[in-house]
Amino acid sequence: MLPLNIQLTLSKGIILASLLAITPPSFALDLTKGQKILQLGGYLNHSGKTQFIGIEDLIGDRFTVSKHHDGNLVVGLGYLFNHPVKKAIQLSYGINVFYLTKTQVKGQVIQEDLFENLAYKYGLSHVPVYAAAKASIDNPANHYGITFDSGIGVNILTTSSFHEESLDGMTLPDHAFSGHSQVTFSAMAGFGVRMNNVFGHAPLECGYRFFYLGQGKFKKQTNQLLNNLSTGPSYANALICSVVV
Q: According to the lineage, what is the superkingdom (predicted)?
């Protein structure tokens, strides 16, 4: 009889060989043929929240928001591996990275919770990175298809360009906060329509994406402030077109 350690090694080898034998050859082949996907579109961002910033030995300031929404360009790059399920259905898995270019939030500062003497604004940009999945369903003639996208990962949220200006011409701006980059949880979901063989054999896909981008903060510039200014939860609605290269 073989020693126990050799029996265990043989058992593991048999199990591994069995798994390899029943793995569909097409799936193994698809793993070596990833697709690069270029994405371009526009998005509308929602950020900012009314909040109270405490000040040592004073009452503090209330930051209100007059402009929650702003839009700009979004660009993306994906790398997906295909896994055909049925003739008309295909699943893809991989990585998707987006850059949501800078947008602004604007509001007013009510000093000591009494006097609206200052206006403020700041900038936000996002680089979400996702473990992504896509489902594609083609019509019988294979002229077009419907796609469903999802992703979960992290967002590199960058706050920047905090600026205050006087509303009454006499109050001096504090410029009490500075921006920085931070990592937040992020998720993405969407759907689209894919038109096959638009650029030779390459398809063109256009659709909607929803991004949850997390919540960021600014850094306070003085220890007299008791808390940091927050962006509030950020999310975006986007229309994006993509091509396979």
A: Bacteria
